[in-house]
Design a protein that fits this description.
It is a single chain. This protein is mostly helical. 77% of the residues lie in helices and 0% in strands. Helix 6 runs antiparallel to helix 13, helix 7 packs antiparallel against helix 8 and helix 7 runs antiparallel to helix 16.
């Protein structure tokens, strides 16, 4: 086994065992893993080219994404939309498409020598949000609960919505579809997504009812239930992949269907229980991705910095491409203006962007296009770590000042 992988596993073990100490230092675990990845890769002088290109790495990343999508779909508490159906629908059905379009348009201006399909892949990499690098956000009592709940719902679903677009665009840039007609490729992708959706619904729906049956008759144990939930995600992904369908969509839809049925029947214990193992595995997988991301940062730094256009695009992805669509989508909503502003500002990028970026690196035939996507992903995620660590605290302090001012005026 690659020595770098062994060291990475050791770093993950230390991070897991020291999780309480890390929390006391007010550090985010992803930041620790990124730093460790950069340091270890630099000290070992590891050439990651072979590791990133290995088929085993690709399969591992695909399984990790499938598990993350399943868990994202199941971890929304308080129903499918966390009690914020109207606001969440605006973010997912209006803001998300506008952000994707905005990213493609800006890419056409800043990165004009790339095909439209490459720009679509880039947009799919930089737009999905992930609360992992700003996990303290959900526990920050300064932020209104409604804001935190809405951000959690958005983060849970947007990567699953973007996934089919990403997979179709990536397939058009791969060896097997390089000469395929664009219309045919899109049609094939839509068919694969629909088949995957059917599989996901069937596995999630059937799995939820089987789970209710065996638990009500005491035919299984809590451990068996927890393992069964993880296996549901893998069954959905594998079944879709075996039929040349979109395994990511199958896993995501499976999670939605499972969560919906278990919640509707009142048999899902939202305090933790049956989802614990899946969530723990997703967290562990996410840690691995952050470590690999740190090594990727070191690897790209040794190759050389990209053009200024990449950094401008990454900065725009974290600001105007996020803020403008969200503010437009929330016009006329019942959210107070400060809450709309907070939701627009708080859109960290993380594991989803890393996984999409690594899959793009492995799946795109043209090395220049693949390198561009990897550079953009790296710049965006690094920028997000810096930008949102500052933004979360600033937004929280603004809420405190506003509350203090209101209280002073009322007294």
């Amino acid at each position: 086994m690659n020595a770098f992988v062994v060291v990475g596993l050791g770093v993950g073990l230390l991070c897991a065992l020291g999780s309480r100490a890390i929390a006391r230092l007010r550090l985010a675990a992803p930041l620790v893993m990124v730093t460790a990845g950069i340091v270890v890769s630099s000290l070992m002088h590891e050439d990651l080219t072979d590791l990133l290109d290995e088929s085993a790495t690709e399969h591992a990343v695909e399984l990790i994404l499938a598990l993350l999508l399943f868990v994202d779909a199941t971890e929304v508490r308080g129903g499918l939309f966390g009690g914020e159906r109207a606001v969440s629908t605006r973010l997912l059905a209006v803001a998300l498409p506008l952000a994707l379009i905005g990213a493609v348009v800006l890419g056409a201006v800043l990165l004009p020598f790339n095909s439209m399909v490459v720009l679509v892949v880039v947009a799919c990499v930089v737009v999905p949000t992930d609360l992992a690098p700003a996990s303290g956000l959900l526990r920050d009592g300064r932020l209104p609960e409604r804001v935190r709940r809405t951000l959690n719902v958005e983060s849970g679903y947007n990567d699953g919505i973007v996934a089919p677009i990403f997979v179709v665009a990536l397939a058009m840039l791969g060896e097997n579809h390089a000469s395929e007609d664009t219309g045919a490729a899109i049609t094939h992708g839509l068919q694969a997504s629909m088949v995957a959706g059917v599989i996901g619904v069937a596995v999630g729906f059937g799995g939820a009812h089987v789970m209710r049956l065996v638990t009500s008759r005491a035919l299984t144990t809590p451990r068996g239930v927890r393992m069964g939930v993880v296996l549901l995600a893998l069954v959905a992904y594998s079944a879709a992949a075996s039929l040349s369908a979109n395994g990511f969509i199958a896993a995501f839809v499976c999670g939605i269907a499972y969560h919906a049925i278990r919640t509707a029947t009142g048999t899902l214990d939202e305090s933790e229980s049956e989802l614990e193992l899946a969530e723990d595995l997703a967290t562990l997988s996410s840690m691995a991705m952050w470590f690999l991301f740190g090594a990727t940062v070191s690897y790209l730094f040794e190759l050389g910095l990209p053009g200024w256009e990449v950094f401008v695009f990454a900065a725009a992805a974290l600001t105007i491409i996020r803020i403008v669509p969200v503010r437009l989508s929330l016009l006329g909503s019942n959210l107070p203006v400060p809450d709309r502003r907070a939701i627009a500002l708080l859109g960290p990028r993380g594991t989803a962007s890393i996984v999409f970026g690594l899959l793009a690196w492995q799946g795109i035939t043209d090395i220049d296009d693949a390198s561009l996507v990897l550079y953009v992903m790296t710049a965006t995620v690094l920028g997000s770590i810096a930008f949102h660590s500052f933004t979360v605290d600033r937004v929280g302090r603004r809420y405190v000042r506003t509350a203090s001012t209101t209280q002073s005026r009322s007294s």
